[in-house]
């Protein structure tokens, strides 16, 4: 089999020796993403330094019909960047850097391999803000964020990554470079092809450069933990707060009882409310600077307590307390390590079906895996639930995914709110997409990647 | 030529006699859109009552390779819905109706032929708001809004139509129905094909049903007219106001001096500022109810006057005064009738190049068409300028489009901010899109519409 040798030779010529790793020289980190699959060394690792090198590499792989897996920060949970036997891994890690910040148009231009946190920091230095924030901010890259349409904890206010992208430069599977980096809010000059690439998990093109919209910085944060009797009450609270603080809510996160039991047991965080409420909400608002507005936040919450919609409220009195409140929400990565291995889900449920959906999930999982702990939390205002099922030691996961995704189908939700499909959720895509939608996705894939080389087997079989 | 007869017979069988008009029975209104092109009777007008009928009609036209032009409210300004000789017109006017409003998930499901205003009113009745508003609200349809990714006067706060659409049902050019009407904010389960259809001007599929996101109603509007010395100052004002009223601005519209001269001369509206400032801004904010917020708005504006950034300010003291302020901005349709025939543009210019771009346009148009009046106004915060050039009677438009679009290219803007390309701007698409982008658009068109029947010649040749 001389073909791989021939390909490698062509790649070496195009990129230079130092941009290619093979065999043992492929670092361990490039052999897996964060989905928990067994590591697999790619046939080679490419480390292009420029869009031109990405283009040259893809043109060669396309010519030889050699499959390519694209890698960013490798924080994905769906196996999208996890190498499959025989694939060439193309990592954007050397394309790291912020090229420009335009303070007038409030835009930032960055290379795809730039970590999200670097983007956030650079925006903050200019008195601005980038609207997407998530736990993996230190390692995930902006290119990966775009490829997966990353969500996070501020979607309520700023939307998902899609809404924060003004333009892209990308390399198509055959090596062609396409670029739309026009620094305007409104551009109806023909198809917005960037929208198709956003969220396509690297299967239609490799994002190499992004043009981001920035926002004014938030003058002051107001943060509270609230206890409520259930989902229906929480949704009424959301409604009232949005009416009183129009456009002001940043986050509206929900943690179910078992979630906070786990933070207490395994993350050294005593529960915020000793009553052990069914739901604990983390509410955060951005309001104009000034005391009147702090009062407004307090008044809005107090009114809800008086009305009986909120059982109890704790308002952060300092930025330190604010940070402490957030540790509850961000503790999940810590307590997972202490629990039996879990199966994780990231689903969307329509708000009108959220109470019923949460009940159904609890009942069906209890039946399918007696004794399992079900950790439920999520971005409630965004209709997004995260679920971790930890069956008792010694029992397996058989049928659990089926139970969860069947429930998603029953309530007409989505099998992936923000993590994407990758390879892990591919078998279940039909639970939230029709055959005609899948056929349309296949048509688009075949049109842009006729040789089927790019992130093959991700999303579509 | 018996083929048309055969097609018509097939269409009659599929849709029923009453859903087809031919010859003189085609109403005058369906022979033109609002682009000002000479009317042209389509070969037939189809009036389907359901998605199934749209599907049947397209399947037949696809089989016979017969071109189809899609019609909504016919308010488009780019010729996208204007029939071309031999085309079948497919009007969505009978698919008019709101099917559901979900107050918990804040969504509305409506048929494509529903007028925008009906959507706005139904949302208001439920204490909610649909985020897109534009002058043609009474006649334009939601399907047309989606097809053209309509913008309007509240993009600053709510984004363009794209941001307000949660899902679509559409019929592809070969008659296949695709549907994604999942009532969730976050859905990363595979390609978001709806994003590709939004803004594709009916060239990739016919939108038949929409799922819209609704917003909480605005508790109170605060509106002001402000005079400023120029674009640079206006952009500083925008910056300051966004910092003081985070998330609060709804509109930030700019009217140049000649615009207000025209409203004074031809729309019986005396100028708001006798000083005749270079720029007059219409600023509107949505703030929480209560006196403290009215004060906040006043204080923010007063501070800008003291600082010298604003020359003068008029704050609306009643909803009637607010409506009067808006008549300045909405007067353009009236004064166009009194001026010599004009050539209209809808361009985007990066904010950082806005001052330079406006100057360049004034200078180059004065040179190309001495004595022409140049009416300039627009959604300044959205980087969107509307331009009308009215050369003196007896002189033509030769070369003026070239002058404008060349300037757009020089400042790296977009030839269409919100009106779309249609047929009128097709020759200039290359001024804001590269060859590789045009090739990618062509690939997508060919993949979804291999017979090339749907809105042929719109956007792409």
TrEMBL record, chains A, B:
PROSITE patterns: FAD_PCMH (PS51387)
Keywords of the record: FAD, Flavoprotein, Oxidoreductase
Domain FAD-binding PCMH-type: 38-217
Cofactor requirements of the protein: FAD
SUPFAM superfamilies, A to Z: FAD-binding/transporter-associated domain-like (SSF56176), FAD-linked oxidases, C-terminal domain (SSF55103)
InterPro entries: FAD-bd_oxidored_4_C, FAD-bd_PCMH, FAD-bd_PCMH-like_sf, FAD-bd_PCMH_sub1, FAD-bd_PCMH_sub2, FAD-linked_Oxase-like_C, FAD-oxidored/transferase_4, Oxid_FAD_bind_N
Domain of life from the UniProt record: Bacteria
Record family assignment: Belongs to the FAD-binding oxidoreductase/transferase type 4 family.
Protein name, UniProt field: FAD-binding oxidoreductase
